Amino acid sequence: MDDRTSTWFGRRTSRWQDWPLDRLLAAKRQQGATISVVIPARNEERTVAAVVSAIGRALIDDVPLVDELVVMDSDSTDATAKAAASAGATVCRTAEVLPEAGSFSGKGEALWKSLAVTAGDLLVFIDADLTSWGPHFVSGLVGPLLAEPAVQLVKGFYTRVRTETDGSTSTEGGRVTELVARPLISLWWPELAGVVQPLAGEWAARRSLMESLSIPVGYGVELATLMDTAARHGLDAVAQVDLGSRAHRHQANHDLALMAAELLTVADRRRPGSGPVAAAQLQQFVRDETGGVRQVKRPIPIGERPPAVSVGRDRHG
C-alpha cells in the first residue's frame, strides 16, 4: 500500500468490538436514524431462517437497533420465502417489486429493488447462506456510519472458515477475490488496495448513497459500489470493519467463472475512456454422459439498473 492508502487503512479500519450496542443505540436515537437489514436470498431455505432469527432476537427483540428486516427472494424455487417469513422477516419477491421495470435474476437486482421496499436511512446487507457468523455483523457494520458523517460505505472482512477436513482458516477473500478482484484493484485502482475483502457480501451504506448509484444486476454490485463510492466521494467515504470469522456455502468453479466475467465487465465499464459494454457469452466445457466434452455458453450479465432516486417506491413514500 502507498502512504495514502496506509493512512486510510489505519483511520478507517475498526473491529466489531469497537462498536458496543449501547453506544450505537444512543447514537441512533440522537440522530433519529432508522436501520434496515436486507437479506438477498435465492434457494437458501436451509440457512435463511437461522440468519433472520438471530438478527431478530439480538437486534430487534433484545436491543431495538434494527427497525426493518427484509428478505428479498430472488426467484427461489424452494421454500426460502416460507422459511424467512416464519422466522420473522418481511419477504418481498424481487419479480413482484416495481413490476413495470421488469426483472432480472441476480444479487444486484435484489439489492436495487430492496430500495423500493425499505425505509431505513442506513442499509445493511447480509448474505442468506451464512453458517458461522453472528448478529455483531450488523452492529459492526453500522458503527462507522453512526459515528462518522463522512462515511458512506462500510465493508466487512473476516477470517473465512474453510470446509477442508483439516479445519484450516484463511483471511483470503475467496477464489474470485484473490484471482480477479484483488489483481484488478492493484493494477488499476491501487488507492482501493487497502480494502481487505472488496467482494464481501456483508456491508452497509447510507440510503442516499445507494439511491444515487447505478447498480449492476448480478454479482458485480459489491465491486461497483466500492469503486463508485470512492470515485464520487473520495477514499475517506469508505470504511471497513473486522467482523471476526465467517463460513458459508461455496460455489462451483464454473459458477465462479461467470462471477469473474461479471466483475471484469464492471471494472472495464469504470475505466477511464471505456466504451459501451457489448453483450457477451462465457464459453465453458463440461463432460457429458458419454464421457465426451460438450461446450456450454452462458450469457454474462452486463445490465445495470439506473440510480433508484429516479424510481418510486412500492411501500414507503
Describe the protein's architecture and organization.
There is one protein chain. The chain is of the alpha/beta class and 317 residues long. The protein has one domain (3-272): Alpha-Beta Complex (Spore Coat Polysaccharide Biosynthesis Protein SpsA, Chain A), CATH 3.90.550.10. 36% of the residues lie in helices and 22% in strands. The chain contains ten helices and 14 strands. The chain has helices at 3-12, 21-31, 48-62, 80-86, 107-117, 136-147, 175-188, 207-210, 221-233, 253-269, and strands at residues 13-15, 35-41, 68-73, 90-93, 122-125, 130-132, 153-161, 169-170, 203-206, 215-216, 238-248, 281-287, 293-299, 304-305. Strands 1, 2, 3, 4, 5, 6, 7, 8, 9 and 11 form a ten-stranded mixed sheet that branches. The protein has a two-stranded antiparallel sheet with strand order 10-14. The chain has a two-stranded antiparallel sheet with strand order 12-13. A hairpin with a 7-residue loop joins β7 (153-161) and β8 (169-170). 45% of the residues are buried. The mean pLDDT is 91.
